[in-house]
Amino acid sequence: MLSVLRAYVVNESPSLEKAAVDRCCAVIAKPWRNLKGARIERIAQRHHGDHLRITWTAQAWASKRPTGQLLVLGHYDTVYASGTLRKMPFRISGGKAYGPGTFDMKAGIVQALFAAETLQRLPAEDQPHKRIVFLWTSDEEIGSESSRKLIETEARRSDAVFVLEPSFGPRGALKTERKGVGEAELIAHGRASHAGLAPQDGINAIHEIARQIARLESWNDLRRGVTINAGTIQGGSRTNVIPEVARVQLDLRATTVADMRQLERRLHALKPELKGSRLEITGGFARAPLERKMSAALFIHAKALAAEMNLKLEECAVGGGSDGNFTAAAGVPTLDGLGAVGDGAHSSHEHILTKTMPQRAALLAALLHSA
């Protein structure tokens, strides 16, 4: 498993560097070709890396009609620019494997490969009756623009979705809830004037945007998981000019679909406070929340399977989104965080706990066998 992981990690795959991502795609696909009966497709993209879809039906069912479909979902792009390996090389030390993308989420893809190989080795009568689609995308870290439609299409064909994003914490908790995530831009339009000679003729767009930000801050409700963060702000040109335009970029998060929709309604209903000013609001939620009701039954089943392996499985709720948000919003049962156990995603100390890789592969194999 570590040999395959090394091959994946040393082929860097920054989301915005198509040539590098495509090279990594070819490397990732190679060991999957040993899976008998697998159909491997590179789904070409013009601006982003190609997506990789592996469709596998057990040999015992190849001549029959599968009884359904399961989707195993993940991504192989990373946030690290090409050349990061020079200062952050792949290495194994103290039971941990380090390197860019080890935890988020190339080790998860390795675990899925070994889970599939395990299922293939079962006696014919015990092999899964369902078609299994492994979908590895190239643009999750930048919003899944080119892969979203593909993900949602495959999800709607499936009975369940298993997301190989990293687990949470040292005990490898699965993610049964994820917040919905969005971005919005609020622009205040005023009227320019000389700040000294004719202040009465101006309408200060920065003052208007400041009042709106204070209003938005009051909407935060940490208990409910609703947050609005003013991340960047722009406005003005010189200190002696009353600014005509100011804008703020907002990060939006909500735990439930109902709260997401309410927040969007309130945002788009904002009214200006300064006479003569005007507001422009664009954007909203890009990923709906993954609510626990979409993952509860799968988690209970996974917990029981883990117990048979003498593993204790926990669950958690997290604030970040994943492609699992899309599949849950499509109405398909979704269990997230089935990937590697480790820490340090998107950081210089990103790593996985090597001893947990076979355990997680075994758990995924059991889920795919019994779902």
Question: Can you put this structure into words, describing what you see?
Answer:
This protein is of the alpha+beta class and 371 residues long. Helices cover 31% and strands 26% of the residues. It is built from ten helices and 18 strands. The protein has helices spanning 2-9, 18-32, 84-87, 102-120, 148-156, 205-217, 257-268, 296-308, 324-329, 356-370; strands at 38-43, 51-56, 69-75, 91-93, 96-98, 131-137, 160-163, 174-178, 180-189, 193-194, 227-235, 241-242, 245-254, 278-287, 315-318, 334-335, 342-343, 351-353. The strands form five sheets. Strands 1-2-6-3-7-16 form a six-stranded mixed β-sheet, sandwiched between helices. Helix 1 packs across helix 4 (102-120) and helix 4 (102-120) crosses helix 10. The longest helix is centred in the first third of the chain and has 19 residues, at 102-120. The model has no long low-confidence stretch (mean pLDDT 97).
